[in-house]
Amino acid sequence: MTLRIALIFGGRSSEHAISCATAGGVLGAIDRERFEVVPIGITRDGAWTLQPDDAGRFRLADLPEVADDGSRVHLPASASTREWTVTHADGTTASLGEIDVAFPLLHGPFGEDGTLQGALELVGVPYVGNGVLGSALGMDKHFTKTVLQGAGVEVAPWVTVTEQSWAAERELWERRMHGLDLPVFVKPARAGSSVGVSRVSDWAELDAALAVAFHEDSRVLVEQGIVGRELECAVLSGRDGGPTRVSVAGEIVVTGREFYDFEAKYRDAPGVDLVCPASLDEQELAEMQRTAARAFEAIGGSGLARVDFFFTGADFVVNEINTMPGFTPISMFPACWQASGVSYPELITELIELGRAAIR
Fold first, then answer.
1. What share of the chain in percent tops pLDDT 70?
2. What are 276-290's pLDDT values in tens digits?
3. Is the Cβ–Cβ distance between 156 and 310 less than 8 Å?
4. Closest-CA residue to 320 (of 237, 257, 231, 254)
5. Domains defined for the chain, CATH in brackets
6. Which of 37, 186, 259, 266 is deepest in the core (most CB within 10 A)?
7. 321-343 burial: b if 16+ Cβ within 10 Å, else e
């Protein structure tokens, strides 16, 4: 039986282009004998549009975006039907047929943060990935760290400040931040792909870094830098009540940049090498995998995630959990699974099957 998949991508966040590139990767690799794809692109203004089923339109090198063709896609009217509809630019409305599973590929706010997941749940649409709670927690770095710390997972020391609090009580917040060791990283609480992130090695640089981060979010983390190897692993939910599955580790080796920033991740800027599998002994890998599973379960994870670590040589410190990681064929999430014996097309199929089976 062929399943009909609504592939949802684009969106209102600053990671719009990365989401489109992720969709291009999935469109080019999904098993066409098992799945019929309905590509739904959300414009930067939030309009849901029907897009061509053409992977070539969404190449990462072009930093693609969803073009508004005037069409408007509509979710089912209630949980009693799975029929989606589209109103074309000429005003005519047509059925898109029944959708078996939605596959959201949005990164950042308004898609990865539980908002889209809640909309799908309201009308009873099964979907790939994390639920409302796991998505909301994973999107917010402050609350992710708070929950992980409560679960006994080691995280880097941090201070979270709002734009309003910084303006009103600057001296208080400066004292708290100066309790951290330099360098620190200044990050928007709810953004990804290293957008708005700065490395501060002198407190004189703090104001400029906060301004960049506050441009992305009204809440910002100032996080103590950890000296150690940057490692990542990919996570999948267990099947049929089985344990959480964790891939081998990948490593980000930074040689000529301050950190693994947007340009290095997506524009092939020099100074960073991605190594997968990373060189860890059996005991180290097992400890990293146990910690990744514990972190995933602590946020109520479902479907998939990428867990990012600093490894000091003695401890694995969780940096972030990404509940919709970059999913292009060259991204670390599929690369880690490929090194673990799961191909990119097989991974797409597995995620869809997990979405169908998820209990929300």
1. 95
2. 999 999 999 999 999
3. yes
4. 231
5. 3-127 (3.40.50.20), 137-154+227-357 (3.30.470.20), 158-224 (3.30.1490.20)
6. 186
7. bbbbbbbbbebbbbbbbbbbebe
